[in-house]
Amino acid sequence: MTVFQQAAAIPYKTDKGNLYILLIRSRSGKKWIIPKGIIEDGDTATYTAEKETEEEAGVTGAVHKEPVGKYEYDKWGGLCRVQVFSMRVTEVLEEWDEMDFRDRNWVKAKKAIKMVKPKQLRKILKLFSKSFNKNNLKKNQELVLGN
User: Fold this and answer.
1) In this structure, what CATH number is given to the domain that contains residue 11?
2) Range(s) of the domain holding residue 119
3) Distance separating alpha carbons of residues 131 and 125, to the nearest angstrom
4) Is the pLDDT of residue 130 over 90?
5) Domains: count for the chain
6) Confidence class of residue 133 from pLDDT cuts 50, 70 and 90?
7) Are the CB atoms for 121 and 84 separated by under 8 Å?
8) pTM of the prediction?
9) Is 139 exposed, middle or buried (0-12, 13-18, 19+ CB in 10 A)?
10) Cα 132 from Cα 126, distance rounded (Å)
11) What span, in angstroms and rounded, lies between the C-alpha atoms of 84 and 64?
12) Residue 102 lies in a domain
């Protein structure tokens, strides 16, 4: 069985003490998801998470070095293994690569957890949301500001 290594990002921001997560529509338009893509040869997982988030969601920011979680799913006749990173959004682009076929939506974390598929990703978002506070990420995780 072929195994595809992927990286994903949870793009987030805070406003008035609330945690917001940026969700995007899947290519089919049927599901709300987070940006993700295959890790190409020579690329790091954090670079891939950052690149896919800019291409698919039209935002840039700081990807945290350690993954928030991991999940797997079947696709392309193989298995996709996804590392999920958090990404503090610093810029929202007016134009981006996939803007013509992907909607994006900032939602409070609790709502995002209910909206996303698959269930494994829901659990990761819940864990991220529970562990989040504005000092925790600064103190405990190194930021990767591009590769």
Assistant:
1) 3.90.79.10
2) 3-139
3) 10
4) no
5) 1
6) low
7) yes
8) 0.88
9) exposed
10) 10
11) 10
12) yes
